[in-house]
Amino acid sequence: xxxxxxxxxxxxxxxxxxxxxxxxxxxxxxxxxxxxxxxxxxxxxxxxxxxxxxxxxxxxxxxxxxxxxxxxxxxxxxxxxxxxxxxxxxxxxxxxxxxxxxxxxxxxxxxxxxxxxxxxxxxxxxxxxxxxxxxxxxxxxxxxxxxxxxxxxxxxxxxxxxxxxxxxxxxxxxxxxxxxxxxxxxxxxxxxxxxxxxxxxxxxxxxxxxxxxxxxxxxxxxxxxxxxxxxxxxxxxxxxxxxxxxxxxxxxxxxxxxxxxxxxxxxxxxxxxxxx
Length: 276
Ligand code: C2E
Ligand code: CA
Ligand code: CA
Ligand code: CA
Fold this sequence. Notes:
12 helices; binds calcium ion; disordered N terminus; single chain; Putative Diguanylate cyclase; alpha/beta; binds ligand C2E
């Protein structure tokens, strides 16, 4: 109806304007954060069946004056809609390599650290060069670096993806597919790409005890990965029971609050690097 339409418009327009304003404000804040080094890196261990750490995922945190620590879930998607994500991605990459170097210089043994790479960042023509430069500037062994990409990279410009992945593989950088099973997985590409790891999305792990479909999906991913000679990391493991089921299903690597929350560099080093 006419009245309904009018109401809908008067209700909708201010909120859209508000959303756009908020977004602009967030973008401005993010720009300042990049300039003023307002970001931090947190580290979450990835463990084997005995709980021994084999690697860690690097997760960005944003310390904002008014709101304290802001989760990336709240700002990465905004950053991804502009070139901000490229600046953030490059910062994460450089900072991770510098942090690894800092620990090595202190005589601390460091396992592989994996950074999240947004599709937009991966698509940059000089992405491989950026990785090479970050590694050589910090003089770290390339095998200490890993990247996590989402499934979307498998469906866009597959030739470019294959070329870049092969170059990274040659360097010794490991490649994981993140949130596996949630995107448009193209199973055919799994064997064409030089991947190392599939990370089972935590959405499947969450209900693994109660939802048979999720349990079957997880078991299928684990067995498929074994045949393709890919490692699997189950994400979002929060309880002993989930850990047990995953172990029974043959999973070898795990990540989640059950083992540790993401930690600041100092706390991560204290808890996990000291006795390696
Ligand atoms: P993700 O790559 O899937 O990262 C895993 C997320 O799950 C992290 O959230 C982590 O803190 C959280 N998590 C880990 N274990 C558990 C658990 O047992 N239970 C639950 N409920 N959550 C768990 P976080 O740090 O908030 O990051 C959210 C997303 O933001 C990441 O999802 C990733 O897509 C993105 N992100 C984080 N750091 C970066 C970055 O440096 N660059 C880019 N491009 N994206 C990033
Ligand atoms: Ca990830
Ligand atoms: Ca994930
Ligand atoms: Ca995710």
